[in-house]
Structures are given as C-alpha cells and as structure tokens.
C-alpha cells in the first residue's frame, strides 16, 4: 500500500469517527422533542424544588424577543447539516454539465422531498392533510432545513471559501438593513412586531395556505429562510475545521470551535441591543447566538465522544441522531404515549403518585429508544 493510500484510509476512518459526535449531538437535540422537555416538570412534582421550574422555563420557546435553550433545537439541527457538508467539501463547477446534472437532480429531489414531508408533518396528530389547498400549512421545520441545506450545498459546489464568508456576512448585515431600515409598504421601518414586520407583510402577501396558529408572522415563514442559510454555512465552516483536525490537532480544533462559539455569542448579544434576538423573525443576532452555542456544543461533543472515545456514555443519543429524521416524522404520526401506556402503564400506575409523571416520561422514551436501538443494531438508517 502506498503512502497516499494509507493517508486516504486514515482520513476516511477519521471522518467516520467524527460522525459519532455529530450523531450524539443531533440525538440530544432531538431528545427534547421526543419527550425530554417534560422531565423537569416531572422532577418538580417529585421533589418540589423550585430549581426544576427554572430549568423547565428553558424547555419553552421565547414568546417573542429573547432566547431559551429550547430555541436552539431547530438552528442546531441546521448547523449540524452544514457540518456534515463541511467535512468533505468539494467544488463541482469545473465538471462538465453532464457530470453535474445527476448531483443537481439529487439535491433538488432532497429539497422537494423534505418540503413535502414537512407539510405532512404539519398535519399529523390524527388530523390529516386538508382537502382544500388554502387550508394547508406549507411552511415547516423540515422545509426550512431543506432550503438552508440546498443553498449551502450550492455555495460549496460553486464558490470559494472566501466567497462563502462574504455571503454569510452579507446575509446577516443585509437582513438587518432590510428589517430595520427599509419601510414596510404602508408602514414604517424597524417595526419588529408580530404584525408590523417585513416578515409579517411577506407572509400575508406571498405565503400560500395558512400560517402557524394563524399568526401574522409564521415562525418558518418565507423571509426568515434567508438568515437560516447562514446557520448552515457557518456549520460548513465548523465541518471544514474538524476535517483539518488530524493535521491541526484534535484538541486545538475543538478549542478553536469553542473559542469561535464564544465570539459569536459576544457578537450576537452585542447586536441584540439594536437588533433583538428573535427566533420567529430569525434575526441576525439570533443566527450568531445559536451558531455560537452550536459551535461550543460541537467542540465539547467532539472531544468527549471522538477524542476521548466516551461513545458508550452517549449511546442513547447516538441512536436517536442516526435516525433523527425518521423519529421526528414518527412523532407526528405515531401515538407513542398510547404504546408506552400499553406496555408500561401498569408499572407506572403501581408506583407512588409523585413518581408517576417521571415514570411515564421514562416509559415513553424507552419505547422510542428500543425501536431506535433495534434499527441501529441492524444498520437500518433512514435518510432523505
């Protein structure tokens, strides 16, 4: 075997190891959606300690301006999709069109499929897709992930790293200028309210169907897709850094990630003074704050899972992350609570009354984890 082949194999093995930390972090991100967000309320019932109520507040979305850790779940997922792309970025604009077409078709197919699945997810929980097109909610979490991923991969395929950096800066500054300094038709500039923002005006005039809870501004509305692209591209930069870890040094790469994360937090919260952190508007300050936390968590997980090799400790999160899209969609069409009660209901009711809420959550998570464990061991990994 030649020296070049040996180096290539080492790089491939390193990439595979890195994916363990990505799966673990993606899994802990999904854990809160699957039922983990109810743990703190159950612990408060069990212990009566007020600290659990404080923790529970972090499992609720901000009402408007502001930030909770539950607001991080969505942008972290987008950031991690960028990390995966950044692990092995490649330009294809030098290839002949006939060679690029299959890649374009695959990207467009993924974009459309995720958008369609997002629409079906919106109408789960036993309600079904409305017969009238005007009653369908088209904006979705999966749709935003798809759009951010699609534009990020197009940038990777066709532009240089320098151009991508300029693009992120232009998106963040341009979005700030748009929302804060350009008047809304029939209104004023800089109105960042549910009904008076540019986001509300565009959703009301151009977003088909209905919005989330019939709000004036849909949290996954049209305009806020633009800054979400920056989350994905910032994830690409993080992936590029991790890809260089074998030569740069694993701990050094993780240190740069964490340091960059704190810089983003400082910039984001400084910007918050004039452009508030807001999830529904997906403000530029929100992009920086969420990307900052994403980079910090990625650096920590990379060291813990891949460098120190504590994979067994995070195995439940790894199996969630490995099939994150599947279990996310299943949460909309499968009644997990009914299944958990059918299997563990008797055991839960036999416990002390103060323990029952916590035991119910554990039973709910156990059913989902057992399925994911079975799929993981048989290498059944569902991806789009």
TrEMBL record:
Signal peptide residues on this chain, from the entry's feature table: none
Keyword tags: Acyltransferase, Membrane, Transferase, Transmembrane, Transmembrane helix
Domain of life: Bacteria
GO molecular function, one term: acyltransferase activity
Lyase is among the record's keywords: no
Coiled coil ranges: none
Transmembrane segments: 31-52, 64-87, 107-124, 136-156, 163-184, 222-242, 254-275, 281-305, 317-338, 358-376
UniProt keyword Transmembrane helix present: yes
Protein name: Predicted acyltransferase
Lineage per the UniProt record: Bacteria, Pseudomonadati, Pseudomonadota, Gammaproteobacteria, Alteromonadales
């Amino acid at each position: 075997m030649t020296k070049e082949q040996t180096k290539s194999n080492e790089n491939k093995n390193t990439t595979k190891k890195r994916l363990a930390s990505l799966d673990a972090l993606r899994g802990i991100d999904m854990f809160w959606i699957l039922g983990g967000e109810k743990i703190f309320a159950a612990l408060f019932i069990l212990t009566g300690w007020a600290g659990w109520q404080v923790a529970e507040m972090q499992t609720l979305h901000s009402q408007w301006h502001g930030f909770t850790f539950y607001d991080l779940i969505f942008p972290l997922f987008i950031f991690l999709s960028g990390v995966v792309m950044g692990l092995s970025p490649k330009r294809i604009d030098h290839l002949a069109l006939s060679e690029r077409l299959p890649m374009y078709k695959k990207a467009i197919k993924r974009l459309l499929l995720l958008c369609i699945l997002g629409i079906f997810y919106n109408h789960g929980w036993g309600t079904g897709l409305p017969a009238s097109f005007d009653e369908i909610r088209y904006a979705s979490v999966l749709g935003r992930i798809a759009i951010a991923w699609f534009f990020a991969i197009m940038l990777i395929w066709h532009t240089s790293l320098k151009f991508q950096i300029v693009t992120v800066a232009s998106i963040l500054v341009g979005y700030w200028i748009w929302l804060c300094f350009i008047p809304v038709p029939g209104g004023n500039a800089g109105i960042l309210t549910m009904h008076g923002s540019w986001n509300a005006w565009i959703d009301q005039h151009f977003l088909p169907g209905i919005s989330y809870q019939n709000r004036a501004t849909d949290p996954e509305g049209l305009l806020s897709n633009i800054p979400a692209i920056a989350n994905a591209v910032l994830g690409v930069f993080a992936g590029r850094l991790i890809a260089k870890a074998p030569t740069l040094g694993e701990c050094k790469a993780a240190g740069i990630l964490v340091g960059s994360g704190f810089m983003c937090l400082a910039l984001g919260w400084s910007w918050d003074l004039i452009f508030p952190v807001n999830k529904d508007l997906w403000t530029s300050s929100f992009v920086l704050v969420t990307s900052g936390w994403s980079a910090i968590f990625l650096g920590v997980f990379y060291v813990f899972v891949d460098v120190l090799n504590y994979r067994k400790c995070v195995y439940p999160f790894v199996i969630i992350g490995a099939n994150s899209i599947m279990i996310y969609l299943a949460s909309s069409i499968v009644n997990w609570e009914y299944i958990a009660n059918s299997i563990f209901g008797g055991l839960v009711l036999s416990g002390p009354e103060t323990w029952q809420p916590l035991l119910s959550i554990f039973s709910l998570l156990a059913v989902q984890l057992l399925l994911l464990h079975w799929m993981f061991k048989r290498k059944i990994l569902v991806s789009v």
